[in-house]
Amino acid sequence: MPADEVVGRPALNGGVRLALRRRQRIALHQAAPDHLFLIESGCLTLDAVLPQERRQVTMILYAGDIISRAAAPPVGQIGLTAMLPSMVQRVRAADLTLDMHTAARAPIDLAATTARLAARSGLHTIAIGRLTGEERMATLLLEMALYLGRPTPGGQSFEIPLSRNDMADYMALNPDTLSRLVSRLRASGLVSMPSRSRANIRDLAALEAMTPLAKALHELHGTSVTQPV
Amino acid sequence: MPADEVVGRPALNGGVRLALRRRQRIALHQAAPDHLFLIESGCLTLDAVLPQERRQVTMILYAGDIISRAAAPPVGQIGLTAMLPSMVQRVRAADLTLDMHTAARAPIDLAATTARLAARSGLHTIAIGRLTGEERMATLLLEMALYLGRPTPGGQSFEIPLSRNDMADYMALNPDTLSRLVSRLRASGLVSMPSRSRANIRDLAALEAMTPLAKALHELHGTSVTQPV
DNA sequence: CGTTCGTTTGAAAATATTCAAGAATCGTGG
DNA sequence: CCACGATTCTTGAATATTTTCAAACGAACG
Questions:
Q1: Read out DSSP for B97-146?
Q2: pLDDT tens, A161-194?
Q3: Is the pTM of this model over 0.85?
Q4: Among residues A180, A133, A162, which one has the least CA distance to residue A47?
């Protein structure tokens, strides 16, 4: 799905605002190298498709994130895929002025945003490289709980924006393996899932105890770790 | 080994120039968040140590690279380890002026350098996440050949700066597995190794054919792919 | 209400890891 | 320059983990 099929209408800063439907894709390799994409709302993946049906989601992007074409790995099939209906603004780096603000009224600090994303990327490398399947699953759930969850009486609750396939491609597992891991977590009572795409973390502290990266995830997100009992 | 044990002497830009011996480490978690490290010469790894003896090298840094503390994943034991005697300059982000030049006299473009590093990081995520052990090994050798190799009559030749353990921690394999993979490559005649730490790529095109990321590696490095025969 | 797609699950296979022993290499000091 | 000890690397066999394949199940959609 080429980027020009995207619904575009003029935006404020000489950029283009794109309204993406779920699953819609922006092919990065046909964007200009100095193009920046500001995620205004929604949730997207940065993903690469390799020969032989292989796909790797290198990063999940949330509102407030900024990704440049130049910062994406230069593989042929690299792109952004909307996991939820999302609003993305595309601007040229040169057009980004220092007094520019996001939709949320916060001033854009490009260097800080870029560094934050790089740190997330590094953390993800660690997760994929050195965590067991179970730890990876806990890491993913904790990440989503932090970025998407709202506290409810029954625990942190959120809509899971990624399909099982997407989650597997993110954590570098295969979908069957991931499904097994989810089932086990559900069986343990730590997480409940009212529907396929909704999760309820019943015991956040226990989930945090399952991954060595809990503290780092909190630090990146600007929250503190739940005290273990 | 704390950072202050490092041999430091005043540098040009209000920063500190550090001369690192092989294996010497800069503990990033005790650097200021706005510290930048410019690699002037040598070769370092950005690595994280996890509980249970686990270690992940998230990135190999070469001369010309710049890494900021803020862009490193915020895990406790994160740091830079010199693989070769290296010269690193530490400056505060605020002190980096636009007209600053590296030792090689090239002007520093922080945004471009940062983007390049992010792209490398993403590519590494793909390698770790979706390549087989054999493909990973080919990817690593190609990367090193590009960054460190010099053409000789017998093929691209270079000194391998990482130990087997380091390479394994970079490619998210275990050292035994990696050793087996190296042995196989050697047996195939594709690579020869006059000593443990020196490699000779006898057939670069064949090596490139072994990894789906050959083109991307070349693109990042600014070279073109060897034509297949 | 049937079809389709995504998910779950079991059994077999492939792949990577662990453990342990042995070999090669490196550094040090004689 | 050689010998020794320490380290790093290699390799086989057993084990663990993950993947593959296939079938069944379930939810979503027309």
A1: -TT-B-TTSPBP-HHHHHHHHHHHHHHHHHHHHH--HHHHHHHHHHHHHH
A2: 999 999 999 999 999 999 999 999 999 999 999 9
A3: yes
A4: A162
The predicted-structure confidence for B10-60, as pLDDT tens digits, reads as follows 555 678 999 999 999 999 988 998 899 999 999 999 999 999 889 999 999
Binding-face residues of A in 32-91 toward B, CB within 8 A:
46, 48, 50-51, 54-56, 58-59, 68, 70-76
Q: Around A148, how many Cα atoms within 13 Å sit in the side-chain half-sphere?
A: 26
- Inter-axis angle of helices B133-148 and B175-187, nearest 10: 70
- Residue A35 CA to residue A37 CA, distance in Å, equals 7
Give the tokens for residue B133. Answer: 């052990």
Give the residue from B130, B143, B177 with the most A CB atoms within 10 Å of its CB, the best one to mutate. Answer: B130
Count of CA atoms in the C-beta half-sphere (13 A) of B203: 11
**Rounded to an integer, what distance in angstroms lies between the CA atom of residue A139 and that of residue B142?**
31
| Token code pair at residue B43 | 């070769």
**Amino acid letter, residue A101:** H
| A128 contacts on B by Cβ (under 8 Å) | 125, 128-129, 172
pLDDT at A1 over 60: no
Chain A hits for B93, Cβ within 8 Å: 111
Judging contacts by C-beta atoms under 8 Å, the chain A residues touching residue B215 are 75-76
**A120-156 as b/e, with b when 16 or more CB fall inside 10 Å?**
bbbbbbbbbbbbebebbbbbbbbbbbbbbbeeeeebb
Q: What gap in Å lies between CA A56 and CA B101, rounded to an integer?
A: 37
Our CA angle for A191, A192, A197, nearest 5°, is 105
Tokens for B80, please give them.
Answer: 């830079």
Residue B117, pLDDT above cutoff 90: yes
> How long, in residues, is chain A?
229
Residue A36 has phi, psi (to 5 degrees) of -110, 145
The full length of chain B comes to 229
Phi, psi of B117 (to 5 degrees): -65, -40
* Average pLDDT of every residue of chain A: 89
